[in-house]
Amino acid sequence: MIRLYTDRLLIRDHTESDLATHHELLSDRKVMWFMQDIQTDSIEESELNLKTAIDQTECSDRKYYFFRIEDKFTNEHIGEIGYTVLDFTPVGKIVEVGYFIRDKYWGMGYTKEAFEEVIRFAFEENDVCRILCGCLKENTASEKVMQKCGMIKEAEFKECQWHDGKLKDRVAYRLLRSEWNKNRENK
Ligand SMILES: CC(C)(COP(=O)(O)OP(=O)(O)OC[C@H]1O[C@@H](n2cnc3c(N)ncnc32)[C@H](O)[C@@H]1OP(=O)(O)O)[C@@H](O)C(=O)NCCC(=O)NCCS
């Protein structure tokens, strides 16, 4: 069971008792506006999403590292962060990160705090060699989080994702373990 701590947060693997708040967040249309592919419409769908996350915690070749973000003092549910393993290579895993948090907590630095810790965990403890992250170009909050966490812009894809009735642009960011180590040495 993975449990990571920051100044304000506990970032941890899910348990079955998370269902009610997990569903509240995954079915929140405002939060999930940019992530409609994983938005849920029923408690059963949220339960399936949660079960997938929990089942993976037991897997030896784990592909999904989906974590719950909580206030470490009150255990209130703040949001979700995690990554999917895209490839297992001889020099480490290549992963893609995603995150979303309850709107009442937006703009309070929680995602930056959680993402920085997930990056540390990935590179130091989970044999990850490359992290990628992307969002629709208009999702400035998400892109800002990537920039604040030291990610490097790699590409901009024109009209590559259908969203809200039109094709939209995406931005893609990366961080290599070597780049992260270098940044830390320079701090
Ligand atoms: C994207 C999201 C996770 C950002 O979370 P957050 O906790 O509000 O972000 P943080 O408070 O850690 O902000 C990190 C930086 O981004 C900036 N930022 C946050 N929201 C912003 C916004 N709407 N516009 C511009 N900058 C913003 C912050 O000011 C902060 O910079 P600072 O350190 O200079 O102050 C949150 O808005 C969200 O859940 N959105 C819906 C889901 C989503 O879009 N997920 C990403 C899909 S790719």
Question: What's this entry about, in short?
Answer:
This protein is an alpha+beta fold and 187 residues long.
Name some characteristics of this structure:
37% strand, 8 strands, Aminopeptidase, eight-stranded mixed sheet, 187 residues, alpha+beta
Care to describe what's here?
There is one protein chain. By secondary structure, the chain is α+β, with helices and mostly antiparallel strands. It has one domain (3-185): Aminopeptidase. The chain contains five helices and eight strands. The protein has helices at 19-26, 43-57, 110-125, 140-148, 177-185; strands at 3-5, 9-12, 64-71, 77-89, 92-101, 128-136, 152-163, 166-176. The chain has an eight-stranded mixed beta sheet, with helices on both faces. α1 (19-26) packs across α2 (43-57). The longest helix has 16 residues, at 110-125. It is globular, with a radius of gyration of 16 Å. It starts with a strand and ends with a helix. The mean pLDDT is 97. The structure holds coenzyme A.
